[in-house]
Specification:
Blueprint: H1 6-14, H2 20-38, E1 41-44, H3 46-61, E2 73-77, H4 104-111, E3 115-120, H5 154-161, E4 167-171, H6 178-184, E5 187-190, E6 211-215, H7 218-228, E7 258-262, H8 271-286, E8 290-294, H9 302-317, H10 335-346, H11 349-362, H12 367-391, E9 394-398, H13 414-418, H14 425-430, E10 434-441, E11 447-453, H15 459-474
Parallel strand pairs: 2-3, 2-4, 7-8, 7-9
Antiparallel strand pairs: 1-3, 4-6, 5-6, 5-10, 9-11, 10-11
Helix pairs in contact: 2-3, 7-15, 9-11, 9-12
Amino acid sequence: MPFASASSIAAGVRAGELRATDVVDEHLARIADRDAEVHAFNLVVADEARAQAAAVDEAVAAGRDPGPLAGVPIALKDNMCTRGIPTTCSSKILDDWRPPYDGTAVSVLRAAGAIAVGKTNLDEFAMGSSTENSAFGPTRNPLDTSRVPGGSSGGSAAAVAAGFAAIGFGSDTGGSIRQPAALCGVVGVKPTYGRVSRYGLIAFASSLDQIGPFTHSVADAALALQVVCGHDPLDSTSIPEPVPDYTALLDRGVEGLRVGRITDLPEGADDDVVERTEQAFDALAAGGATIVDVEVPAFTYGLTAYYLIAPAEASSNLARYDGVRYGMRVDAPDTNAMYTATRTAGFGDEVKRRIMLGTYALSAGYYDAYYGKALKIRRLMADDFARAYERADVLVTPASPSVAFPFGSKTADPIAMYLCDTYTIPANLTGDPGLSVPFGTGADDLPVGVQVLAPALGEPVMLQVAAELERRAAAGGEP
């Protein structure tokens, strides 16, 4: 069933035609009706949401504008700090930890009139591609509950796909927004690194993490980005550039744009995904875009480099969970034994695996051989993409190698799970923006996501191309 867009909700509430309290009650009713089956949320904050909605309605009644997201129900990934509200990263080691502050993105969204209805499930500490690694149980794909929603932001993707929230927010370290967006049939955006403040986002890999939205449409994605993007002095990596109007080009079409097809893209995508991606190129060409062939030789090494760089940063970031300062503590006879007991009980298998990988890559005698080489590949990849963008305004690839896969089909083989991120990882390594937009269906009538990539700060043209793909998909994908 179609759900109300964030844009229409905000417009209706600001005009006094909708009551925010009614909108929130409607979404909370959907959650109550179906989330026991889907498990998109670790925590639903119904009382807080209703109180915020009442405040929005009071502002409208008093003649004040509550903001561009007035009354819009949103879902926050449970690695975004919310003051006084549990923020667990879906890990036992942070079970019931309540941050003393809001993350910047959370504060900005609240100021814009958005209403958080809950904290969504994720792969523990955002490490995974299926949301099966959560300490609190998996999230199910609302389109087919026998299948995964993708990960690590599977809870936020599922919340939007199920109509529990008009916008979901996740974090993307190697594809954790774009891949679940593809599997759940929604739009998912990873902005340029530094475009959205990471202050209050619990770190996985600090040089790769970025917050972004899940929405039902490209227009809603543009609206959400307009709110959360911007400079933040609390984040030293925040870009001090003004934010353009992301909605300005959505209706312009693609006449005259150059769309890059990567000729040396790694193989591995299923036939149905490849077919839909080719149809996306045909649709863009029919819209007046020029399809140009480009090469990105380092693309094929992205997965290898990522699984050295990300675990290395994770092993450093997760060292703070020691049972002393906050979170779980398992008592033991001495400090070292307490560290060991706490981390053994608090971390899941995948988190332990990545901590060990990262610690090994950073250890004496192996740093240059592994981590150092991975950083060189990252540099080569950035150079390769920069050359590709000299010839193309955007690049188009699959977002995920497959449609949503069955539960348990990849859990016994970590490499098979890691390969889910083949096409999304490079944009994290380069820091460039990427987006997944639904473009038809594949096997078992499940959605296929097409990825649009753009150079740094290229969100406007990326959204422009995605909006054209969305229009063509609505018309049946016909050129």
